[in-house]
Fold MFS transporter.
Amino acid sequence: MSSRLLLDLRPLTESPAFARLWVGSILGGLGGQLTITAVMLHMYELTASTFAVSMIAVAGLLPMILAGLYGGMLADWFDRRAVALSAATVTWISTALLAVLAWTGLVDVGWLYALSIVNSAANSIVSATKMAITPRLVGDRLIPAAAALNGITVGVMVMVGPALGGVLVALFGYPVTYTLDVVLMLSLFLGLWTLPRLRPEGESVRPGLASLADGWRFLRRAPNIRLQFLLDIVAMTFGNPLALFPAVGAVVLGGGEITTGLLVAANAVGAFASSLFSGRISAYRHHGLGIGRAIQVFGAVTAVFGLVLTAAWLSPGEASAGRPHVALIVAAMACLACAGAADNISSIYRQTMLQSAVPDAIRGRLQGVFIVVVTGGPRLGALYAGGFATIAATWFGESGSAWLPPLLGGLLVVAITTAILRAFPRFRGYDAENPTL
């Protein structure tokens, strides 16, 4: 197989600091996915409500937005290493508290919501700061390769974490699952602690309204950056059925917690595979068109996933933890793997565009907005999927309510993305050899 098809490993071999941060991010992110999966299952166990599960994401939306924006301002003023370490410490403490509450039997719905909010806010700061750091560690020429390696990170942690989380919860319970996250996250501290000091280059603005206004003025002059944000929000709002997975595993496809973990992991398998064979993807120059086409594919396979759930609803026999629809579970996983691959390809192009075209002095604030979009979109998607499924349950029953949100949402993603690509030829013509805002 031609080496040009495979993942470019030069960021790891040429930048030891990036390599340490990359390994720490994989292990820390793996633990974080254990907790995310466990919290979803824990909430569903306590409430038996898909809407309550979706509200975990929705409740953290505003704090996450504020933290992402303010964290970006901090990253454009202070040493970025110190900012990331401070936010990671908050995440670790909140996860440790969740583990303690689980061991003592004191976890309730309120604690699950509260600590999920703290985690989402702190993680948005960590993620924005790490992304602002990356170009300084690898250099401009290796930004696409580093973005693909970050896709591997997401792929591994989401591929292994949710499936392992489902198994751990089923076999050992919630306290063990939360505690393992506490241990794994220590590796992230090692990756951050060994970084050099990384103060922003160029003229910076002190955190506050003036810094926020300066970032907003820059974004107004950057239509290509704005459009990639908009396209991602569309994809994640209407094409992210994650909040449905506990109910899908319980009453639609069957298999319980194991199926829930497998569905989440399938998405990551696609992301992992697309990064592993990202040589040609990273070399493609027309990033605007690449983003649009990837999101169109993402919407199409999401709609097909909705059709798979429709088939499960219409099939004879009631699904349960002991009676899974094995063939339909495999079909659903294939759809989600394709969606994960398409989303990751879009992410590689969006990260490269943002990190190449934006000056270092304002990169933290734009990465903050990027993180708000990337993590806020799925929360809007959770509200869309959970709310729509709750309404649909009054028409079709709980087992028949899950197919409609992904089917309609996937078609909306395709239609809206197609309209945007036709309306903005400058975005379609974006050339990575000559980055423009």
Remarks:
- The chain has a mean pLDDT of 83.
- The chain has one domain: 9-428.
- Residues 9-428 form a domain with the Growth Hormone; Chain: A; fold (CATH 1.20.1250.20).
- The two ends are 36 Å apart (CA to CA).
